[in-house]
DNA sequence: AATAATTTTTAGATTTGTCTAAAATAATTT
DNA sequence: AAATTATTTTAGACAAATCTAAAAATTATT
């Protein structure tokens, strides 16, 4: 089934809110979407008629099974595009959201399947959020900053906490990017610095400060 | 200035039609866009009020300077996305049009600039159509099928005339893709077969029939 | 429990883009 | 040149998505 851009935006927002509370109320959705309560009510009727939500007047609402599946499909598209924009086009992670907001509504399953493959089936987006798989399952991967990765264990770089010019310069220099496979060879208690190895590159050393700002997830977890 | 998806589609269609005839008439645009003449008239009023077209009632219309610039920006986006879909995601060129139709309306200049760079500033899309540059200039590059490329002259593969499984298998095998730099070392009059060299690969031989279906453009032209 | 305050819904209007049917204009034919 | 035909525009309606203002329902307060 196909949904309009507006419907998709509502679905996504409801999904986001119901994560925190059990049932969502009209006003909070209106605030979250920067619109009026009346507009929300109108859309709720439509989403109900399309069987995406449970909704009782004056009571509250939530996505049903079908609605949740749809939300996850949209979130998957959004996060894959964000990953693309950062890793392939070199945009900063704090700039990609509004563009992914537009790209996520392009509705071709084949496109998304190919994009996913092209990007190497990433599990975590550049903000560190998990990317639902094609079945709508959210990977549960714990991320740790590089200084907390046990030595000899490899991790995949999922995100970096700042994308200042200075930080990016250093990461580029060492060949560290999102998706890089990285292993801590040795950590020095003296100053917290780490000797690390990135696949197919010679070992190098980075400061503890740098390591605190690089996040990785466990390679092996299924 | 920002335009709606619908406005952009009209701009693009007018551009396409006025290429052939001098002024465009309401009915032909309606047919071209699969809509009614009345809808076209409505939109013409809006495009006129936004100063994109010259339009005199009952007479005809055409894009003005500003409208043409806008059309070329849209076409640029469309063709860059087509190039992306074919060269990066491996889609067939005869499948990419409807997806590019959606992607072309994503309106971020930074996105397009980066996409262009990422793709290597391509000049020709996978259908063999020129891609306007950032200033809206259409490159004028003559394309020839590989069997017509003079020996010792290098060309860039711009398109292939069929994307059957069999064709793609062969191209993959030889490492020939859109954007490949290719040189004819020797052509054999006996059967039309060609010995060719693709940059960074050993020389190989392809049949005359294959060569007729591979199009290249002149490397050197500015 | 009655009143006040808050939240949600309805009623009706607006904007964008579309449509059909009818009127206006232009082009063709006799 | 008058009549017929074709094209284009207008008038009025409709669907989607939004809004404001008022009414209805719920929740909180005295």
Oligomeric grouping of the chains:
homodimer
- Number of strand elements of chain A: 8
- How large, in whole angstroms, is the Cα Rg of chain A? 20 Å
Q: Count of helices of chain A?
A: 8
Terminal CA distance of chain A: 31 Å
Question: Segments of chain A where pLDDT lies below 50 for 5+ residues?
Answer: none
Q: Approximately how much helix is present in the residues of chain A?
A: 40-55%
SSE pattern of chain A:
HHHEEHHHEEHEEEHE
Q: Strand count, sense and closure of the main sheet of chain A? A: 6 strands, antiparallel
Structural class of chain A: alpha+beta
How much of the sequence lies in strands of chain A comes to 15-25%
Largest sheet strand order of chain A = 3-8-4-5-6-7
What general outline of chain A do the C-alpha atoms trace? elongated
Tell me what you see in this structure.
- With 222 residues, chain A is an alpha+beta fold.
- Helix content of chain A is 40%, strand content 17%.
- Chain A has eight helices and eight strands; from the N terminus they run αααββαααββαβββαβ.
- Chain A has a six-stranded antiparallel sheet. The first copy, chain A, has a two-stranded antiparallel ribbon with strand order 1-2.
- In chain A, a hairpin with a 3-residue loop joins strand 1 (53-56) and strand 2.
- In chain A, helix 1 packs across helix 4 (65-87), helix 2 crosses helix 3 (37-49) and helix 4 (65-87) crosses helix 5 (97-103).
- The longest helix of chain A has 23 residues, at 65-87.
- The radius of gyration of chain A is 20 Å and the shape is elongated.
- The model of chain A has no long low-confidence stretch (mean pLDDT 94).
- Chain A binds a DNA duplex (30 and 30 nucleotides) through helix 3.
